[in-house]
Design a protein that fits this description.
The chain is built from 4 helices and no strands. Helix 1 packs antiparallel against helix 2. It has one domain. With 113 residues, it is an all-alpha fold. It is elongated and about 45 Å long. Helix content is 83%, strand content 0%.
């Protein structure tokens, strides 16, 4: 369970980066990418921290799977929300999305009593 909690804290860090990325990578003028990053970033921070603090295996597993789905969303969002022409936003979301997807699945698989 310790591994799953640590992985979820890494998801929270990824969420913090996702939240800050539009400002650091200078794509905050692209409103769709900006708001997607802000919303998903906040949700990842909250769910990652919640899973990192949770003591029930079921809660950690469920939140880890939700984080994995959010990671998948980040990978496909630039194409669905039509901001794939903004390279910084697209590549940031793809990279963070893959990392969060892998961490979420890994955490869900390793969460044990």
């Amino acid at each position: 369970m310790k591994t799953a909690k640590t992985l979820n804290w890494l998801v929270a860090v990824g969420g913090a980066w996702e939240f800050l990325a539009p400002f650091i990578l200078s794509y905050s003028q692209t409103k769709t990418a900006l708001w997607d990053a802000i919303i998903i970033g906040i949700v990842l921070v909250v769910l990652g921290a919640w899973a990192g603090l949770a003591n029930e295996v079921g809660t950690v597993k469920a939140l880890s799977w939700v984080n994995a789905v959010l990671g998948l969303w980040l990978v496909i969002a630039p194409f669905i929300l039509a901001y794939s022409g903004v390279a910084a936003a697209m590549w940031n979301d793809i990279i963070v999305g893959i990392i969060v997807l892998v961490l979420g699945i890994w955490a869900a698989q390793t969460a044990k009593a």
